[in-house]
């Protein structure tokens, strides 16, 4: 996990890639979204992670991992122990898990083999790797391990990458903030969903995140980076009503 990150093309790293929590006990959440589309199988996998009130000891403190799988399948697991969450402050990197009782692991990036051996349930992800395992006695299981080659961040590839919400997003006045981390990339590896193994090479991939103290009153967004005969095209759009310094957008 750490080794592969060193080969990430830093020119494609977007603003806001790092973790935003300032260490205070104010209301706060941060969420991440990874997606892989498998055109030949006509399926999409979406992975959603969140951490809320990471100071701990509060009503909503904890993390959640959700997976949208084939044919509208869904898997959701909670991770109440915020001390087992980690995230990099200046780059895309995060993880949350439950370790095997006999092999406790510190909340830090793990080698993929070490993760497989010692983590009972959880996930870890960077800009170039994504790995995890979730299991529910009713909803079933999902495990995955794949590598990512970023193609587009947010902005022209030969220029510094941009904040999706513009330069004002640096002032932390939006509730919440939103950032496209990777408008388009290529993923190679595998995902096992309920015992069915999906192996893929150079599958279209996408990543984004949001953070803040509250969700918008209303919002929508869409992204598509899988077009027939247009493999280099990515379309993203979004909008909503959110709070800006206590004032609601119209």
Structural class of the secondary structure composition?
A: mainly beta
Give the fraction of residues assigned to helices.
under 10%
Strand content: over 45%
Count the domains.
1
CATH architecture: Beta Barrel
Largest sheet: 11 strands, antiparallel
**N- to C-terminal distance:** 43 Å
Mean pLDDT: 90
Categorize the overall geometry.
Answer: globular
Commentary on this structure:
By secondary structure, the protein is mainly β. The chain has one domain: AttH-like fold, CATH 2.40.370. Helix content is 4%, strand content 50%. It contains two helices and 16 strands. The chain has helices at residues 2-5, 112-118; strands at 29-38, 43-52, 62-68, 74-79, 85-87, 93-99, 119-126, 129-136, 140-152, 174-175, 177-193, 196-212, 218-224, 235-241, 243-244, 247-248. The strands form three sheets. It has an eleven-stranded antiparallel β-sheet, with helices on one face. Strands 10-15-16 form a three-stranded antiparallel β-sheet, with no helix packed on it. A hairpin with a 5-residue loop joins strand 5 (85-87) and strand 6 (93-99). The longest helix is centred in the middle third of the chain and has 7 residues, at 112-118. It starts with a helix and ends with a strand.
Features:
250 residues; mainly beta; AttH-like fold; 11-stranded antiparallel sheet; 3-stranded antiparallel sheet; disordered N terminus
